[in-house]
Design brief:
heterodimer, A: mainly beta, seven-stranded mixed sheet, four-stranded antiparallel sheet, about 0% helix, B: mainly beta, 11 strands, about 55% strand
Chain lengths: ~110, ~120
């Protein structure tokens, strides 16, 4: 299985901050990398697919980059509704696997 | 607007079979990738498997001996069966639609908590 490792596991930030979350794959996954966020009691919501494509309806403050093994999700200016847990997902090989999550909390 | 809704028992006894159905509205189940994903309480996400092209199926090898995904195109539903469950199978189970082979799950059900307990 391809292991996905996110860092940090948690972070505290203020509204308006620029936030960066990284995701590293245990082997190359090309650009088969998606990002989601999840709020308590809710299903995950797709933010970025294919490493850098913004999902329709998702605010432009979210962006993704990377290929191969190293990927980044950036929130350019954190908003109150962005406090959530963020997951990366690889779909390069079966089984699809997720990172362990990054919890973004209010500072 | 595509909507997915999971249904099934919320409590299953150890060693029995967990059965869930995902009803899809607002779009045909004949296209796309239809996934089952689960999340144990307080933990991360685990991909169980998906169905595509109304019959081609891929499973997580860690569950493959116990899991079956099937489809009923006449009802626009797909289902999950997980046999010989233990407490480790207690989780919120989600069904989700992925658009392409990139696996981007753009529509999700609300999730249903299944507890394995006697």
């Amino acid at each position: 299985d391809i292991q996905m490792t996110q860092s940090p596991s948690s972070l505290s930030a203020s509204v308006g901050d620029r936030v960066t979350i990284t995701c590293r794959a245990s082997q190359s996954i090309s650009r088969y990398l998606n990002w989601y966020h999840q709020k308590p009691g809710k299903a995950p919501q797709l933010l970025i697919y294919a490493a850098s494509s913004l999902q329709s309806g998702v605010p432009s403050r979210f962006s993704g980059s990377g290929s191969g093994t190293d990927f980044t999700l950036t929130i350019s200016s954190l908003q109150p509704e962005d406090f959530a847990t963020y997951y990366c997902q690889q779909s390069y090989s079966i089984p699809q696997t997720f990172g362990q999550g990054t919890k973004v909390e209010i500072k | 607007q595509v909507q997915l809704q999971e249904s099934g028992p919320g409590l299953v006894k150890p060693s029995e079979t967990l059965s869930l159905t995902c009803s899809v509205s607002g779009g045909s189940i004949s296209s796309y990738y239809w996934n089952w994903i689960r999340q144990p309480p307080g933990k991360g996400l685990e991909w169980i498997g998906y169905m595509y092209n109304s019959g081609s199926i891929k499973y997580n090898p860690s569950l493959k001996s116990r899991v079956t995904i099937s489809v009923d195109t006449s009802k626009n539903q797909f289902s999950l069966k997980l046999t010989s469950v233990t407490a480790a199978d207690t989780a919120v189970y989600y069904c989700a639609r992925a658009v392409t082979i990139f696996g981007e799950a753009d529509y999700w059900g609300q999730g249903t908590l299944v507890t394995v307990s006697s």
